[in-house]
Each structure stands twice: as C-alpha cells, then as structure tokens.
Sequence to fold (142 residues):
Amino acid sequence: GVATAEEWGMRTLGGLLLLLCLSGAQVGCDPINPTVREMPISYISETAGIGRPAKAGDIVTIKYRLTLPDGSEVLSDDEHRFQLATGSVIAGIDDAVLGMKKRGTRVIDCPPQKHWGRGGYGNGAIPPDTHLIIHIEVLDID
Fold:
C-alpha cells in the first residue's frame, strides 16, 4: 500500500542515517514529502541475473557505486547488506534493487528527490539538486 507521510519520513530518515553512518558525513535534509515515493528513477542499463527477483522485506547484499554525472565517484561499497524496501538505504537504491536478481546489474539515474535533494551531501561531495548515477550489482538475496 501507499506509505503515510510519517512512514515515508521514517524510511527517508533511516536511509540517510545508514549512509551517514557509513560515510561519517553530516547532511542537511529536505522537508519530508510523501510524493517523492512516486518520482521515477531512470534505468540507463541492466543485466538480468539469475534466480528469483528481490522483493520488499528480502535481505539483499549488493555492491554499489554512486557517481556524479561527470563520473566522479562519491560513495561506494563492495558488500552492503540490508533489508529491501524498509528505508535502510536511500530511496533510489531501494527502488532500483526491487525486482533485481542475483548477479544482475543496474545503472540508474537517480533524481535528487530520491537521495539528499536540496541539502546535498558530504560537505559538497554531492552538490544540492544533483542527479546521481548509481551502479548496482546484486550479490545475494536471502
């Protein structure tokens, strides 16, 4: 079903907190806006993978790399494990991993509203209102 504004706010806050813990950075946040959930991500490329598709609630392990449109890497992890669609990562990653299969890859264009938005991230590492290119590979689905 559709998340309430409070549920969406907790999901967004959870994703920000996790990535902040991983990076040690501080960030300003956009006001909570439940319409963000409906904003699309754009798929640049993808490979199918094997097995069953990942669904909400699955524990997934991914490899990811976040880059600016110019190719500059701003954040990456070779083995990040999380529960899918629970807000433990930024919304763009949750959205992209849903439906992926083990060994599958996706490269997405993630709009600012699906990550840190107007606040930017990491003392200018991600400027405000910047699209991110996110490279994802699913390593495992439990």
